[in-house]
């Protein structure tokens, strides 16, 4: 395709959020929250709230494992008790790490659910045949190289923010006033979840830097040193403070996003259009 066949145009779009789709999207967060709560209560609540009991159980477990090799006449009792303490510490640390990973993997999955919901809805609406007719264009889903247009369609939080900003999509509050979605506390909270997700997955990088700037309280520290910088990992050591991170806070924000999304909205986007057929 020659450069002279591409032209930037402002296209108009009608976006429709089908009530049944809206209901499905909202319901997903209710299910995710219930599942998260159930797993926490069944597996991790006792570890967090009755740690002494768990510790004593590990202590008894250690003694059972070590008793066969402990002979008072040959083994130093202090060494034996040190082995018991080491066993208890390692098992507790292991379990707390599993809880840490559970919370952050749950958040990462939660954000991916939201991002894929939003991308799917936007793509299907923007490329709908009604919008093709309105703009007198044809949206190509697969190009001549068999590349899927959806693969590169607003594939991260920054790009989604950009398209929502350009479309000027809004929420309407109880007083009937409209507010740009990207300027709401809901969007800010979803961004926070995105930063946590990316930081957990990738470690040091732009997301971790942004998260530390905006929410330094989420990083564990020794004096002024971040444990993430010390250990150079975000999932093999507990470097983020999951006790200060609420799954329901982010799940509720995403649920509220879809609850407040209007059934019909209109907006415009400047896009590159192949005008080769118009020149023929």
Task: Explain how this protein is built.
The protein is mainly α and 280 residues long. Helix content is 58%, strand content 11%. The strands form three sheets. Strands 1-6 form a two-stranded antiparallel ribbon. Strand 2 and strand 3 form a beta hairpin. Helix 6 (185-202) crosses helix 9 (247-260). The longest helix is centred in the middle third of the chain and has 50 residues, at 77-126. The protein is elongated and about 90 Å long. The model has no long low-confidence stretch (mean pLDDT 91).
* Overall strand count: 6
**Terminal-residue CA separation:** 14 Å
Strand line-up across the major sheet: 1-6
Q: In what range is the share of β-strand residues?
A: 5-15%
Helix- and strand-based class? mainly alpha
Radius of gyration: 26 Å
- Residues in helices, as a percent range: 55-70%
Summarize the biggest pleated sheet: 2 strands, antiparallel
Characterize the overall form: elongated
- Can you write the helix and strand succession as a string? EHHHHHEEHHEEHHE
Q: What is the residue-mean pLDDT, rounded to a whole number?
A: 91
Low-confidence stretches: none
Helix count equals: 9
């Amino acid at each position: 395709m020659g450069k002279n066949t591409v032209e930037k145009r402002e296209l108009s779009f009608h976006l429709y959020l089908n009530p049944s789709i809206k209901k499905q999207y909202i319901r997903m967060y209710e299910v995710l929250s219930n599942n998260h709560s159930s797993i926490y209560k069944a597996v991790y609540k006792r570890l967090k709230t009755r740690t002494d009991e768990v510790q004593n159980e590990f202590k008894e477990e250690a003694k059972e494992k070590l008793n066969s090799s402990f002979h008072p006449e040959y083994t130093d009792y202090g060494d034996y008790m040190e082995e018991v303490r080491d066993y208890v510490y390692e098992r507790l640390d292991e379990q707390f790490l599993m809880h840490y990973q559970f919370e952050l993997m749950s958040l990462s999955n939660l954000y991916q659910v939201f991002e894929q919901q939003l991308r799917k809805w936007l793509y299907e609406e923007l490329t709908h045949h009604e919008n093709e007719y309105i703009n007198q264009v044809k949206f190509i889903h697969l190009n001549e190289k068999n590349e899927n247009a959806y693969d590169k369609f607003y594939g991260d939080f920054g790009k989604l923010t950009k398209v929502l900003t350009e479309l000027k999509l809004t929420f309407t509050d109880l007083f009937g006033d409209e507010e740009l979605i990207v300027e709401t506390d809901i969007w800010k909270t979803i961004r926070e979840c995105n930063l946590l997700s990316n930081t957990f997955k990738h470690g040091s990088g732009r997301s971790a830097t942004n998260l530390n700037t905006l929410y330094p309280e989420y990083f564990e520290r020794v004096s002024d040193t971040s444990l993430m910088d010390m250990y150079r990992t975000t999932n093999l050591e507990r470097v983020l403070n999951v006790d200060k991170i609420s799954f329901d806070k982010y799940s509720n924000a995403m649920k509220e996003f879809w609850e407040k999304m209007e059934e019909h909205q209109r907006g415009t986007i400047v896009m590159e259009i192949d005008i080769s057929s118009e020149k023929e």
